[in-house]
Amino acid sequence: MSGPSWRDLLPDPAPAPTRTPLALGVELRRRSPFRAGEWAPRRVDAVTPRGLATGRGELLVGLRPLMASASTGEWVKGDVSWDAVRRPGTPFDPVAARWLAELYSIAHDVRALGSFTDTSEWITLDTVESALLWPHLARGTAAGVAFVPTKPYLSIDLATSATIVLEIGPGPRRGLSLRPRTTVDGEQRDADIVRPVAQTGVYVVAAAADRISLTLAPVALSDPTLAALHQPEGIEIPAAEASEFLRDAYPRLARRAVVTAAEGVRLPDPPPPQLVVAARFGSGDAVQYAMEWEYPGVGRLPYATGSDPDRDAAGESAVRARVERAWTGASDLPFSAVGTLRGADTAEFSARILPVLERARGVRVEIQGRRRPYEELSGAPEITITTVDSPDPDWFDLGVIVRIDGRSIPFTPLFTALAQRRKRMLLSDGRYFSLAHPALDRLRDLIDEAGDVAEWETGPRISRYQIAMWADFEDLADVSEPAVAWRATAAGLRDADGVEATDPPRALRAELRPYQRAGFDWLSFLWRHRLGGVLADDMGLGKTLQLLALIAHARETGETRPFLVVAPTSVVSTWRTEAARFLPDLRVAAVDATRRRRDETVADAAARADVIVTSYALLRLAEDEFAAVGWAGLVLDEAQFVKNPRTRLHRAAAAMRADVTYAVTGTPLENGLAELWAILSLTSPGLFPSARRFREEYIGPIEHGKVPENQEGGPFRAGRVARLRHRIRPFVLRRTKEQVATELPPRQEQELVVELAPAHRLLYDTILQRERQKILGLLDDLDRQRFIVFRSLTLLRLLSLAPVLIDPEQAHIPSAKLDALLEQLDEVVAEGHRALVFSQFTSFLDLAERRLDDAGIRFVRLDGSTRRRDDVIDAFRAGDAPVFLISLKAGGFGLTLTEADYVFLLDPWWNPAAEAQAVDRTHRIGQTRRVMVYRMIAEGTIEQKVMALQGRKARLFRSVMDDDDLFARSLTADDLRGLFEE
Question: Which one of 9, 193, 418, 929 counts the least CB within 10 Å of its CB?
Answer without folding.
Answer: 9
